Amino acid sequence: APMGSQRLRALGWTEGHQKAFAILQEAAGADLIPALVTEAGDGGCDAESGAGPLRATYGPNLLLSMAADPLRRPLTDDWIAVRRWPDGRATAEAILSRRVTLMRQEPSR
User: Whole-prediction pTM value?
Assistant: First the structure.
């Protein structure tokens, strides 16, 4: 279980999130932590992790995904996987799950 799992559960973390996170962490081959986005912007996001609040910029894979489709950027209430770096920085590496549904509206002609 991730560090601070009781705190994560209070934020809405479920067994389904845990399973998806475990698969992602194994594929990434890196130590990642789950976090819930509380505010998202162009350059990064604020989130709540099991250890408390954090600020993360977007990692390269997430930036590539966002360049292909702007709707793939983290939004408030998304669960993300965050990598902590030795120098104290944090990067959002992937979106785990989305609580809201986005709909594209085709331009009217």
Answer: 0.84
